[in-house]
Structure formats: C-alpha cells, structure tokens
Amino acid sequence: MAQNQEGRNLLAIIGDEDSITGVLLAGVGQVSSNQKKNFVIVDAKTQPSTIEAAFNELTSRKDIAILLINQHIAEKIRPTMDKYTQTFPTVLEIPSKDHPYDPSKDSILKRVQKLVGD
C-alpha cells in the first residue's frame, strides 16, 4: 500500500542543541501559523516521554517528509523507534557532535539488513 507523499515538503529534527542550531542555520526551521515547530531541542533533563510525544506528533504530521533524530536520543525511545514502520515521514538516525553514529543501533538499517538477508 503506497502512502501519499504529496504536500510533504518539510524536514523535521529531534536533536541536541548543536544539531538543531546547525539545521536552523541551514534554513530548515519552520514555525506554522498555529505555532507548531518542525524541530524539538532535547537536553539531559528531557524525559523520554516528552521525546516520544514529540516523535509521535512529528511522524503524524502530513507536511513532513523526513524526520532526523540524533541516534543517542533515539536510543531513549528505542521501542517506539523499532515499532515505526511508515514510509512517510522517513526517519533517519544521525550522529551528534558528542555521540558518533553506530550502525548496529539503527532500527532502519536493521530492517534493511533483514530484508536483504544480511
């Protein structure tokens, strides 16, 4: 069953302050007329339930094509990440300045490896 990607033209991000700053400086930030942002800043005090709520809200929006999430933040909501199977928005785990990317933790990469039989 193909999903409709029409109208999906935003990039969203859930990340640490440095990652968000970089994306905003690149001109990706957007605040809609009803004050919905396409970015969520996560720090050490942010509860996993808050991260999960942000993930669920951003993945349910019809205007987002790609959701970037720092991998170390994705680890805090790994069960939710593993359950997410929608094509749009596509969820990509990215490294941060202080946390390198670990392919063995990436739920999307694990799914791809399972499909190709690796």
UniProtKB/TrEMBL annotation:
Location within or outside the cell: Vacuole membrane
Membrane topology: Peripheral membrane protein
Pfam family, one: ATP-synt_F
GO MF annotations in UniProt: proton-transporting ATPase activity, rotational mechanism
UniProt entry keywords in alphabetical sequence: Hydrogen ion transport, Ion transport, Membrane, Transport, Vacuole
SUPFAM superfamilies assigned to the protein according to its UniProt record, in alphabetical order: AtpF-like (SSF159468)
Signal sequence range: none
GO cellular component annotations of the record: fungal-type vacuole membrane; proton-transporting V-type ATPase, V1 domain
Chief site of localization: membrane
UniProt similarity note: Belongs to the V-ATPase F subunit family.
Function: Subunit of the V1 complex of vacuolar(H+)-ATPase (V-ATPase), a multisubunit enzyme composed of a peripheral complex (V1) that hydrolyzes ATP and a membrane integral complex (V0) that translocates protons. V-ATPase is responsible for acidifying and maintaining the pH of intracellular compartments.
Quaternary data: V-ATPase is a heteromultimeric enzyme made up of two complexes: the ATP-hydrolytic V1 complex and the proton translocation V0 complex. V-ATPase is a heteromultimeric enzyme composed of a peripheral catalytic V1 complex (components A to H) attached to an integral membrane V0 proton pore complex (components: a, c, c', c'', d, e, f and VOA1).
Protein name per its UniProtKB record: V-type proton ATPase subunit F
Organism: Serendipita indica (strain DSM 11827)
Highest classification ranks of the organism: Eukaryota, Fungi, Dikarya, Basidiomycota, Agaricomycotina
